[in-house]
Amino acid sequence: MVKYVCKIDMCSGCKACIDTCKMNAIYIKDMLDSLNAVIDTEKCINCKQCYKVCPNNGTVELKEQLSWYQGWAQSEDERKNSSSGGFATILAKKFVKDGGSVASCTFEQGDFVFKIAKTDKEIECFRGSKYVKSNPQGIYRKIKQLLEERENVLFIGLPCQVAAVKKFVGAQLEDNLYTVDLICHGTPSKKLFDTYLEDYHIEISEVKNVSFREKNSFLLKIDDKPVIHYKIQDEYLTTFLLGLNYTGNCYNCKYAINTRVGDITIGDSWGSELSIEEINKGISLILCQTEKGKALLERLPFHLESVDLKKARNNNRQLNHPTIMPKEREYFFKQIKKGKKYSYVVARLYPKAFVNFFNT
Q: Which of 208, 13, 191, 217 is nearest to 125 (CA)?
């Protein structure tokens, strides 16, 4: 009988269970449309640590907002080089300047992994949106060690990953841990992303950099070149924006709600009432849930303005509920698992959309 860490097909891939297992008895099985944390019963000593650290098993504390803003980096260059208003980068650089360490996601050697940054140069590697499941394996142990050494650590990641970090380090070490959760629509399997690139004869292990977005333009670039013509929405981002290609757990996400797991929550200030000029430059949405979060905002070189919280929630649906699973999803994954090309399946599902893209 197969044993799983949490409910079948509900694994988020946070991998905290792998980091906590001293017997190396856990691995993540990627089925393209779902992930599962599987326990090797031959190695398992039944200590239950994996169950305890998994955010899916038990409750996670979610908090109401204390304050909310929209804004952008005071530095034009920082704002220009960011997906949105540059809040995460500015906060991370201020954090390391004050002597702390920052943990977040970067692309390295064909994978979206988490690293510890202690310099501005290292933080630059975190820049940019990443619309695929990242791999936090190993980062939990590193963060816990830094906290045990009484170092301040800032963690920037998805809400499920923030919950995992807090579970892993425990309440006794949380005083020096600061967390920022991202407003997440859902994330596709890394294996599915690799499958898509293979259609275009791109080997992910040979790729140096990946970009999914430039401000309000969603465009998949590999090594600074669009995968397909820049006037045509590529199939991967088409399915991402339609909420079609996420793993199953994302449609039942308990973090897609107005109360949040991090000290700060960030995203795009969609629906902002500010000028089109400012919107095109990028505006961050910043929600603050704790006094620790408010302390991070103090003396930050970031332009802050008031924002209508109700309007912000209405334009960021994951602050209200998870993405609703499209009815086409079952057909999509069935065809992909049969070996059909990603582009073929998407064109079959949405032929009019691609006619429109080709005619632009």
A: 208
The CA-CA-CA angle for residues 134, 139, 140, to 5°, reads: 115
Which residue in the block uniquely carries the two structure tokens 């999509």? 332
For 72-111, how does the pLDDT look when each residue is reduced to its tens digit (9 = 90+)? 999 999 999 999 999 999 999 999 999 999 999 999 999 9
Laid out side by side, the sheet with 225-226 consists of: 210-214, 217-222, 225-226
Q: CA 287 to CA 200: how far, in whole Å?
A: 39
User: In the structure, what pLDDT confidence band is assigned to residue 231 with cuts at 50, 70 and 90?
Assistant: low
Closest by Cα among 200, 239, 232 to 331: 239
DSSP H or E stretch at residue 221: strand 217-222
Q: State how far the alpha carbon of 33 is from the alpha carbons of 137, 140, 176, 190, 332, in Å.
A: 20, 26, 36, 11, 10
Contact 155, 179 (CB under 8 A): yes
Distance CA 246, CA 5 (A): 20
- C-beta neighbour count of 149 within 10 angstroms: 9
Crossing angle between the packed helical segments 342-349 and 190-199, to the nearest 10 degrees: 90
Tens of pLDDT along 25-51? Answer: 999 999 999 999 999 999 999 999 999
> What tens digit of pLDDT does each residue of 252-296 get?
999 999 999 999 999 999 999 999 999 999 999 999 999 999 999
Would you call 218 helix, strand, or coil by DSSP? strand
**What pTM was computed for the model?**
0.95
Element (H, E) at 91: helix 87-97
d(CA 132, CA 191): 9
Residue 185 pLDDT: 95
Q: How many angstroms separate the CA atoms of 221 and 169, rounded?
A: 36
